[in-house]
Amino acid sequence: MVAGAEAIPSSTADVLGLLALFRLGNGLQGAGVEGAPRRQVERAATVLLAGWLLWFSLIEPRPQLRAVGASSALALAALRVGITIVTQTGRPPPLRGAGALVFAAMRAGLAYRAVAVWLQGPQPAQSLALGDSAVIPMLLTLFAVVGGSTALLAISGSQLLDSHRATQERLEKLVLVDGLTGVANRRALFETLQRRTADARRNGRPLSLVLLDVDRFKSINDGIGHAGGDAALRAVAERLAAELREIDLCARFGGEEFVVLLPETAAEEAERVAERLRRSLAELRPLGSGAPPLTASFGVATWCAEDGDGGALVSRADELMYQAKRAGGDRVAVQGAGSSA
């Protein structure tokens, strides 16, 4: 426009600029069903601006009205982008402030041009392009383009960083969650156990562990297939998780074995928890109402200083679980005590 370009190229640039600002605003806000009416309004506004520019460029050439209409439409679109940036509370304040500043400059330049051109009255096209009314808006628009590009790159970088963090959190969750049952996996168990045993050693807090194995699980797989066995394991995991506190951890140890980690829990209370879990599992009928109850054998061990980081604690609970299984299953075995059915 400053170089004395013809009306059609500058009109095309105005329409493309409006479309770019609309797309930028949509990208910052995010897509969604609730944005459909807004997009319809934006399409209508773009069509109206294009019609306005074409009419006053080709059919009834009036550069003054063409420039006022284009500047006003672009100023409103820049206002919308600026508001979108300011209301993005999830973005760092410096980024929001910089983005709002540069688009405010763009709005000011476009609004100044619209008013100045209107007050000039009808003028030749070259006068509108090269007159004083074009100098300030062009400088402000240049500042907005350079500063806006920098701010938007920073905002895009922030969005990419947030996306990367969210993806990393999802991957970490996948690494620490058992894919079949949805409870913690073996890796998550030992990471948590290491932290809990360190706390028990440092502060003298009680810590107990329950290891359980579903009784006669091979016969379940042989009788109804692996799909039925998987359904039974998922039912066991759901029931265990539902019976525990928020600070407790339920993990699949491997195969049909599960571990329940009980922080702040001494031996007697851990035994009561195991008994409650045993009775709750015996009420499950994941294989159908006519199927036999789903029982499990439990071993309960409480941490002591000789257990170190917890590996010995798991081993003792595992041995106690096998004691319960050798005694017939569907029972709880506790260190220093007999089994209880």
Structural summary, described in words:
It contains eleven helices and six strands. With 341 residues, the protein is α+β, with helices and mostly antiparallel strands. Strands 2-3-1-4-5-6 form a six-stranded mixed sheet, sandwiched between helices. Helix 1 runs antiparallel to helix 2. The longest helix is centred in the middle third of the chain and has 45 residues, at 132-176.
Write the layout of secondary structure elements.
Blueprint: H1 7-29, H2 36-59, H3 63-86, H4 93-120, H5 125-130, H6 132-176, H7 186-203, E1 207-214, H8 217-224, H9 226-243, E2 249-254, E3 257-263, H10 267-282, E4 296-302, H11 311-326, E5 332-334, E6 339-340
Parallel strand pairs: 4-5
Antiparallel strand pairs: 1-3, 1-4, 2-3, 5-6
Helix pairs in contact: 1-2, 1-3, 2-3, 3-4, 4-6, 8-9, 9-10
